[in-house]
């Protein structure tokens, strides 16, 4: 009987832990995301949706800016995971690569700007502590992470874009038609 009792306690404990995690989301990240979404929407409405879309289109039409400055601004301003909402400004054919760039940048930015991805901060701080124990500069580490991150997201973005276009062409999908509102059959 003791074994059944302990099994039942541990079994329900899994769901209690899940409930606690869910409540953490309800009281933590969900309100933050809602506030950020509201703030960004308000800024877009104040500036004007056409002006914002036009500006973002200019940035995302340039291959270098699309996979460097655009993800940097999104991650810095909105942090993870809200930064992914910026993907809406990219053309459909670039969205997979823009996402790849953004998701690849949420860790490298953390050393200089911890607000960008609080969930990854513990990883960076663990590595930084090792540098501190070796007598090396944590600031230098943060800058190196940041620069390496920018280089990596640029490369990943370009490679992912080329792969997306290659695979779409191979399957007969006209990505330009999707951007213009229709898809070739």
Automatic annotation (TrEMBL):
Pfam families: EII-GUT. The chain crosses the membrane at residues 21-44, 64-87, 141-159. Keywords: Membrane, Transmembrane, Transmembrane helix. It comes from the Bacteria. InterPro entries: PTS_IID_sorb. Signal peptide: none annotated. NCBIfam families: EII-GUT (TIGR00821). This is PTS glucitol/sorbitol transporter subunit IIC.
């Amino acid at each position: 009987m003791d074994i059944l009792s302990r099994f039942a306690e541990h079994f329900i404990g899994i769901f209690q832990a899940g409930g606690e995690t869910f409540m953490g989301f309800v009281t933590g990240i969900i309100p933050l995301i809602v506030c950020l979404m509201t703030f960004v929407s308000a800024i877009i409405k104040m500036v004007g949706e056409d002006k914002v879309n036009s500006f973002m289109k200019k940035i995302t039409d340039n291959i270098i800016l699309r996979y460097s400055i655009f993800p940097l601004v999104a991650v810095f301003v909105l942090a993870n995971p809200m930064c992914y909402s910026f993907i809406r400004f990219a053309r459909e054919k670039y969205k997979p690569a823009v996402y790849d760039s953004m998701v690849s940048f949420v860790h490298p930015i953390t050393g200089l700007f911890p607000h960008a991805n609080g969930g990854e901060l513990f990883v960076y701080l663990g590595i930084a502590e090792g540098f501190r124990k070796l007598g090396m500069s944590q600031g230098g580490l943060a800058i190196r992470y940041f620069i390496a991150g920018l280089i990596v997201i640029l490369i990943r973005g370009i490679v992912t874009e080329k792969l997306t276009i290659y695979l779409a062409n191979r399957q007969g999908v006209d990505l330009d038609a999707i951007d213009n509102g229709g898809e070739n059959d």
